[in-house]
Structures are given as C-alpha cells and as structure tokens.
Design a protein that fits this description.
The protein is an alpha/beta fold. About 45% of the residues lie in helices and about 15% in strands. Strands 1-2-3-4-5-6-7-8 form an eight-stranded parallel β-sheet, with no helix packed on it. The protein has a single domain, classed as Leucine-rich repeat, LRR (right-handed beta-alpha superhelix) (Alpha-Beta Horseshoe).
C-alpha cells in the first residue's frame, strides 16, 4: 500500500503545475506490482502540467499496466501531456477489452503521431477474448495516426486468431514508415505464415528493412507459405531476416535460398 501511495505521488509530481521538468526525456517505470504501475500513471494524469520533451516512456516491463493504467495512459496521451513521445513500451497482459479500448484510443489520435517505436506485450486472457483485444490494437494500427512509426515489437500472441487480426493491422497500408517488425512468442504456425505472406509485401510495407521472427512459432509449412508468397508478390526491401529458433526443413531452406 505504501509503495502504491508513493508511486502515485511521484507520478503526480512529474506533471505538477509548478514542476520544473522541462528537460525530462525518458521515464522508465520498473515497479513490480500492477497497483504501483496504475497509481503512477494515474498520478501523471492528475497533474495539471505536461512533459513537453518526454521522448521515451517504458512502463510495465515486469507486469501489466491493467485496466486503470491503460485508462490513465489514454487520458494523458489524448490530453496532450506527452506531445513529443517517440518511444512507448507497455505490458498489456490481461487488461481486457475495456483496457484495450482505452489503449487503442490513445494511439488513434494526433497526439500519438510523434511515435517512432512501439513495443507491446499481450497475454493473460482466455481464447474467447484474446483475438478481440488484438483486433482493437489492429484498428489503432490502421487509424492513420501511426504513419511515422518506424519500429513495432509485438509479443505474447499465442493463438492463430490473434495473429490473423494483427496481420490485418499490419496490412492496412497505413504503416508506410515501418522499418522494423519484431515478433516474439507469437504462434504463427502454418496459417499465420500464409497470413504474413499477404502482409509482408512492398505495396503494404514499402519501408520494411528488418523482420525479427525468432521464437515466433513459424512451422516449416508456415515458412514455406511465406516464401511462396514472396515468389508471387514483390517483398519489401528487407536487409535483415532473423528466423532464429525456427526449424528449417530442407525444402523450406531451399525455398528461402531461392529468394536470397
């Protein structure tokens, strides 16, 4: 309880009307309790001032920001408190549809248009709700407000339904500046590889230079579908392809070699 109280006090102090933090560029929130994270974010939102030059905000590395944290994040982003924010890292595990609606709304605004790097981690929900939450995130990716986004890291998508709706956002055509995609702990399997092949084309991601798909659950058939897609459609101008910890059969390796 004491930790939660002081987290809120510190958060509010950052945006207090009389605070002199005009040079603050980075905030790393490494609290290991969800209540402390939510309290810190609520405190930031409560202050009357803003963090005009804040460029990097990392919160919830070890645990989720939960619903209350997502709602506070939504409020201070849309309220213009962090107009220069370029890097955002958040753990969204278990925030539910209500929390995801708030987070997605925070990204679907001109106040989020400065973002250059976004890292999110999903998980902690049942199969019935998981895809619906990721779909809300994909809608934000398709909103047109993230056209300047250069790097996107997504983790914790264990089911194929989540992967498929993520691909809808990636393939929206609105992420024209995206240079790097990192996918970790994602269950692509065969179907996901096919969906990915329809997204990773120059028409939809013209600036993509790096695909990091280690631990992404791509099966041999999934990789074959990806390689096959690149043989029939023009791939993005990739310079870096990381398939570490992916099992490559002879046939799949040959298919990829043909493209390289």
């Amino acid at each position: 309880m004491m930790r939660q109280h002081w987290a809120e006090v510190i958060g509010e102090a950052l945006t207090h009307a009389e605070a002199s933090l005009n040079s603050l560029e980075e905030v790393l929130l490494l609290h290991k309790t969800e209540k402390a994270i939510s309290a810190f974010l609520a405190g930031i939102n409560r202050g009357a001032g803003s963090l005009k030059v804040l460029r990097s905000f990392l919160c919830g590395t070890y645990c989720s920001i939960r619903i209350q944290g997502a709602q506070s994040l939504h409020a201070f982003v849309r309220g213009g408190k962090v107009p220069s924010l370029k890097e955002l890292t958040v753990n969204l595990a278990g925030i539910g549809q209500e929390g995801m609606q708030a987070f997605a709304a925070a990204l679907s605004t001109s106040h989020a248009s400065a973002l250059r790097r976004l890292e999110v981690k999903f998980g902690g929900v049942g199969p019935a709700d998981a895809a619906a939450e990721v779909e809300l995130f994909s809608v934000a990716l398709s909103s047109g407000y993230l056209r300047r986004l250069g790097e996107l890291s997504v983790g914790g998508l264990g089911m194929i339904g989540e992967v498929q709706v993520l691909c809808m956002g990636l393939g929206s055509g609105e992420l024209t500046s995206l240079r790097k995609i990192q996918l970790t702990g994602v269950g692509f399997r065969k179907e996901g590889g096919r969906d990915l092949s329809e997204v990773l084309i120059v028409e939809k991601l013209p600036s993509l230079r790096s695909l990091d798909a280690k631990w992404a659950g791509l099966t041999g058939e999934g990789l074959r579908a990806l390689a096959g897609g690149w043989m029939t459609r023009t791939p993005p101008p990739l310079k870096h392809l990381n398939l570490k910890c992916t099992k490559l059969t002879g046939g799949v390796a040959d298919a990829l070699s043909t493209l390289l």
